[in-house]
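Chain A, query sequence.
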Amino acid sequence: MEPKKARKESEARLVCEFCNAQAARQVRLNHTFGSGAKMIVVANVETIVCDNCGQRYVEGEALETLNRILANPDTYARQQMIPVADFALV
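Chain A, predicted structure.
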């Protein structure tokens, strides 16, 4: 796990849709959908993260783009080999 980056004092906080605290921020995260041969990783998704309740969600144009990618993964995704560790075997 990477250490948290220091937040800039001027960084605007958003109101979280789940807890209504003004503690959310927009970041780019990787999201994984499906499993096995049907798994897809969508990188650099604009995601809202709340530092108060911990909720993470995608909204607006980013959500529309994400849904378009998931509806047509063969159009937008490229095949890439990734190592997978099985937690239960450690």
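Strands lie at 24-33, 40-50, 56-57. The longest strand covers residues 40-50.
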